[in-house]
Design goal:
about 190 residues
């Protein structure tokens, strides 16, 4: 087993096994799990278990659109609150986050080049927008009925920005650099 495979398994255990809500509150814990799955664990699984990821390698644009629909869908108050209230909906949410993360990373890394970079940069843009909306909202969006709920939501948004934005952006720029290097080698 390679390093990426071991790290992905260890991080999955940490994401789902540690009491994040006790430490950070509900919404920041949600974002640690969400961003951990789509931006950290998913690329590690793609790199660590390539045969598992190959069937999920859709086009980068299709992957970005699927992830957009799942991520924004589960951040609508009705679905987010359903996941808070029901273990079954929570498991579905977490599974879908991981699956669409795998689809994005498998498609982008397998395709590579500018198309792969475009998929990651598009994903970065919609994740950044959602993180900014959560951080800058002047009111609580979700049914968090306790003191400090707005600060908890804003911390969750900041975690989304701090984890997702740089990972997708750096990976996208890395694919651009590789593409440019390949073009340069072809011209030589």
């Amino acid at each position: 087993m390679n390093v990426a495979a071991v790290l992905s398994c260890a991080l999955l255990l940490a994401i789902w096994g540690l009491p994040w809500s006790d430490w950070l509150g509900h919404f920041p814990a949600h974002m640690i799990r969400h961003m951990g799955l789509v931006a950290v664990v998913a690329p590690l699984i793609v790199l660590g278990f390539p045969r598992l990821a190959d069937p999920l390698a859709l086009s980068p644009l299709a992957g970005a659109v699927l992830e957009f629909l799942v991520v924004w869908g589960f951040h609508l108050p009705v679905l987010h609150e359903a996941a808070m209230a029901s273990s079954v909906v929570f498991i579905i949410e977490q599974a879908l986050f991981l699956i669409v993360g795998l689809v994005v990373w498998a498609g982008c890394l397998r395709t590579g080049g500018l198309a792969g970079a475009g998929g990651l940069l598009l994903t970065s843009m919609h994740m950044t927008l959602l993180g900014a909306l959560l951080t800058l909202s002047p009111r609580v969006i979700y049914a968090l009925d306790h003191a400090g709920a707005l600060q908890e939501q804003q911390l969750g948004g900041m975690l989304m920005l701090a984890i997702g934005t740089p990972i997708y952006l750096i990976a996208g720029l890395w694919l651009v650099a590789r593409s440019l290097e390949d073009t340069k080698d072809e011209m030589a």
